[in-house]
Structures are given as structure tokens and as C-alpha cells.
Model the fold of this input.
Amino acid sequence: MKHVDWTAMTVFLLFFALVTVMGFLASRWRRADDAQHLHEWGLGGRSFGTWITWFLLGGDLYTAYTFIAVPAAVYGTGAAGFFAVPYTIIAYPLVFLFLPRLWSVSRVHGYVTPADFVRGRYGSRGLSVAVALTGILATMPYVALQLVGIQAVLDVLGVGGTGNWFLQDLPLFVAFGVLAAYTYSSGLRAPALIAFVKDALVYIVILVAVIYIPMRLGGYGHIFDAAAHKFTPDPATGKSPGSLVTGPTGQWAYATLAFGSALALFMYPHSVTGVLAAKSRNTVRRNMAILPTYSLMLGLLALLGFMAIAAGVGKGEKKFNAQLAVPQLFADMFPSWFTGVAFAAIGVGALVPAAIMSIAAANLFTRNVYKEFLKPDATPADETRVAKIASLLVKVGALAFVLVMDKQAAINMQLLGGVWILQTAVALVAGLFTRWFHRWALLAGWAVGMVYGTWRAYGVASPATKHFGGSAAKIPVIGEIGYIGLTGFVLNVLVAVVLTLVLRALKAPEGTDETSRADYSAEAGDEAVKQAPQPTLAH
Amino acid sequence: MSSQSPSAGALPAVSPARVLAGLCLLVPIVVVLWVPSYAKTEPRLGGMPFFYWYQLLWVPLSAVFTTSAYLLLRRDEAARKAAAAAGTVAVPAQQDGGEQS
Done:
């Protein structure tokens, strides 16, 4: 058992206490008069301007798990782990095309979730609930992984790890209990306010890390030499754990993972929640231009994986957990007090996305399952009450996930979640531009993509796990290794196109479309937006 | 970019500003998806292999392209609004890139 670093621990706890107080005070921040409406609790009153949205989305998309997993992948496999950088480069120009349209139509019709939009556009409860359930399913393991992020930090701090199961996980219980309480009382305002602290901490820590650590390790040249050495194939077996630059066989995987993940990013309910909370269409657009600041941080962070190699983190330990590479690097390199700051950045970095994700999943459940199927005459106050309870259940579920099933299961599920959420992109993105696709064809395409993705991912083994070990497999026809989610997406589109042609020829009922052309370009201040229904009273 | 030439009635769906904005968005996507163009170690920059610094460089560059697309579209939208308001032939007013609201 490691000894506990009390200086680091104290700093860590101080920051934790600070954000807890902020979380509870957030319910009074920018409060509107109709606090009973779901758009107040679940979308912060749709009132966030450019900078708050920037902090909120940055805090939301760049999660604690990302901070652990991306450098861990670079530490373990080299170049292949760096795909997160092209992924976040592609994401913003890509979604720039359709997110403003989603914002506009959602504002005019009071949609709170992506499934609300699908419901309104296609008049299909089946398609809407498919989108909603996919979103919930993909979000749950993602929340669970935020816990894994906190766990990694606590491990290195010396708490947790060994001992009986209750004591071992007690800090996690406390952290999540606190998180659940202020999300319940403050809604989306809590993570929005805490995101300021989180992002400030993250920027400081990463900037210090990428300057200070290379100085101690003898410069970037030396760091990359050490990495090149690690990834030099073993002369006896010809095998290497990774490579410094993607090899000819890895390039399809690199590009398809980047593209597929970029497209999937804004299909996640928590990303959509962050976007819909913006107060205007141009707020959304401006954010697509300024969010890359976070991507730059992520890229620099990825390099920490190489620094961990150069610093000899985990060297000689047979079963070293790569997830601990960066926390361990911080602990080895920084003075204790700054290690505390760095760990606080990761810990608080877990709370912000976990809160937004649970709110997003709760919104989906409330709007697209509860109100749609269980209690169609629910009042706005009912909706808010149900959403608050659902947000608690999501967190309890995530906690159970991590405690009962093992960590590896959460990681596998999250990879699978990415494959799944991408399958909702056809209905959502195509729907923002055209009503050509038939709702039943979209549902069939979604089902084919889900089944294909799950089946292929099941067949991927890795050293850590027999099934669901990764998300790349051979692409049929092309024959290269590529991202399963993207292959599933292509199949999904093909099925949707073919069936739409068939169904149109058969004149199958198309469902009603409650949106009109102008809704997709409405901006705050327009007549249509001023007359928009109270968000939760829509339908 | 100079202002669009006045056309009859509302502006066409495909205006030069929109095409240019689309291209601005396409450039960073194509550049980073073209993996073979940068999968090499040389030339290094401060000890960092090409593969890494080139991709890091494209993070701010992509932001520049996205910002350009935003400014182009905002001007285009203002022009469309003006054209719709006038209801007849309208020469879009030059908007400069000041922050609104």
C-alpha cells in the first residue's frame, strides 16, 4: 500500500470543496422566473452566451476520461492514440454545417433533446424512441468512465486501491453523492458554473506540464527518442507495441476513427444539451470557431503519454495500468502541491461532464419515454420533477456499473456506445436538411447499423479483453482496417436510401412534419422565435 | 471578398459567399484525413516528429478556416435579410465583422 501524499490530498480536497459550494450556489445564478420548466433545469433557460457556452461545451466534451485515456493510448501504442487530434480538428468544421440548423429548429419548436426533433420532423414515435434509447445507452457507460477517471487519481494519491470494498470506494461514493445533490438542485447551471474552475485548472496544468516536464526530461528531442526506442520492433519477435508514426496498414483506421468519432461527437445527448443551451444561433457558430482552443490542449496533453515513457513511468512493471501513466507522471514530476492542483483538474474535470451527461440522459427519458409513452398529459412541473429523479438514477446506475462490473466493461461499453450513437446520425443530420428519407427506412437503417456495429465489435479481441476489445475491423469490399462505427454508418445510409425508394414507390404513409423551411434558419430575435411555444409545452 | 453582384429578387441559394464558406470548412477536414501526406518523422521541429507538429499546427489553422466561414455566412445572412426586407432588387450592404449582441 502506497503512502498518502497529504499535501497533494489537501489541495485536491480544497478544490473539491470549492466546486461543491459553487454547485449549490449555481441554482441562484441567472435564475429566471419559471423555474418549474424543464428548459430551466435541463437547458439553463437557453440563455448562455458565447463565453459561457464555450466553457460549458469545453468542460463537457473534453472529459476527465479523455485526459486519462488519450495520453494512455499514446503511452501504450504511440501514433495510433494521437487520432484524437485529427478527430477534434474535423469535428468543428463538420458540425458547423448542421448544428446551427438544429439550434434554430429546436428553439422555434421548443425541442429539448435530439429525439424531440426527430419526433417533430418525421412524426414517428418509433424513430424518436430509438434515438432516445440509443442516446441513454451510449451515455451511461460514459458517465461511468468519469468515475474511472476519478479512481485513477485517487489510486495515485494513495487512497483506494486496496482494503475492503467499502473503504476502497468510499471517496467515490462521496464525490458522486455530492455531484448528484447539486445537479439535482441546480440543473445545468451547476456544471456551467463549475466548468469555469475546471477549464482554468486544466489550462494551467497542461501549460505548466508541457513546458516544465520536458525541461526536466531533457527536451522534446529526448522524449521522442525514448518513445522511438520503445516502439522499435523487438529484433527477436519482430513485434512492437505500437509505432511513432502510423504505418501503411494503420492509416485507414486512423482516418476513419477520426472522421467517425467527429461525426459521433455531436450526436451524444450531452453535446446537444450544451448546444441547445446557447442563447442564439450565432453563439453556436462562434463556438465552433473558438472550441479548437481545447483541441490544442488535448493535443499537448496527448504528448504527455510520450513524456511518461521518457520519464520511465511503469517501466519494468509487468502489468502496469496505462490509465495511471499520466497521474503517475504528475506525481513523479511535480512538487506535491502542484500535483494536488493537477489531480483537482482531473477530478473536477470528471464532475462537469458527468453532471451534463446525466442531465442529458434525464431529459431524454423525460421527454421521449415518460411524456411520450407513460404520461402524455405531464405538466412542465411534472417533467422537471421526473428529470431530476432520472438524473439521480443515471448516476446510481453508472456507479453500480463501475462497482459491480469491472472497469474494463465500462471501457468496452463506451467504445460500443460511440459505435451506437453514430447510427442516430442519419436520421438527425439528414433530417436537418431534407425530408426525403422515409421514417421507416431510417428506423431500419438504424437497426442494421446497430446490429452490424455490435456484432463486429464483439469479434474484436485485445490483450485486456476477449470481446469488444476495440472499434476497428476489416471493412468489407475495401479490405482495409477501419472504424466499425463508420462502416455501420455507411450501411445504415445504404439501407435507408434503398428502403426509402421502395417505401415511396409503395406510397407508405410518411407521417406529418411539424417543421417548416424557415424554422431551420431562425435566429434569436426573429418573429418565429419570439412566438415560440414555452419549450416544455411543445407537442 | 467584394459584395455580391445584385441579382433579381432574393439571393440565389448558392451564393459565392456560401460556396467559399463551404470550401473553408472542407479544407481542414480533407487535410487531416489525408493521413499518408503527413505520416513521416522528418522534418522535425524542436525534436518533435513531423507527424505530431503538423497535426498540432492544423488545430489553430482549422480555427482560422472555421472563423472565416462564420464571417462569410454572417455577411451572407445579413444580405439575405436585407434583400427579403426590401422585397425587390437589393444590393447587399457591406457588413463589417463587428461582434453582435
